[in-house]
Amino acid sequence: MSKVVVIPCSGMGKVYGLIAREAALKVVRELKKNEAETKCLAYLVTGDEEIKNYMQGKKCITIDGCPKMCAAKNAKEAGAEVIEELKSIEFAKEKRAMKPGTATNLNEEGWEVVDYIADKIVEIIDNLEVK
Fold it and tell me: Is 0.85 surpassed by the pTM of this model?
């Protein structure tokens, strides 16, 4: 199985964007480094041909920080098979962590949400491997 591509929000200046990016990095650098990778959303948004060709048919999990869903929309437009569209703010609500820090620094609540999202992504990938 090829690696699952995890595309986080690039919401710079937003705490939920930071949570999305940290969760993606935790998955690809620590928890599932042999089964997952990430690509830069900015390349997808700008229509970079190399990344668009790479993303064709790739299984993809997106993590968005706001209702605009830029990661999910752009991954689909690039030809990826988006198997899960996650929203970091929804996970913060589930964890009752509505003050997770700032756009540049997460507090303990914020890091708990990062771990929660990363665990959810691992679960999704593990379920793919079982099928």
Answer: yes
